[in-house]
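re: ur question from yesterday

yeah so i grabbed the chain u mentioned. its 117 aa long if i counted rite. heres the sequnce exactly as i have it in my notes:
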Amino acid sequence: AGGGSIINFTSTSYLINHPDMPAYTAAKAGILGLTKGLAGKLGADRIRVNAIAPGWVITERQKELWVTEHGLAAHVAKQCIKDVMQPEDIVGTVLFLASDASRMLTAQMLIVDGGFL
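ran it thru and got these structure tokens back, copy pasting raw so excuse formatting
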């Protein structure tokens, strides 16, 4: 018995250039280190530890604070899949990582960003 799944959230922001947000990007990069460290420590107890790194998910808060028509269009233009990401686009990845279908997946970061290049 035992086991389980810890799912951390980070961001793709530390993988791309955000010169005005060094503390934020450093913190998000640190989550991957935490994920790998915990996976190594908890694996013997069959506890998987992974991270999800979403791209720019357009929430109501994002719309209120940061989204502009031009900025969103420019971002989507850099994605392989040319759709605006919604919170619902992350759900399947969470369910997969929480399920036994991912029983041998640990210490990983899954990027869900529409193929941002």
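noticed a couple things. The mean pLDDT is 96. also The two ends are 42 Å apart (CA to CA).
anyway ttyl
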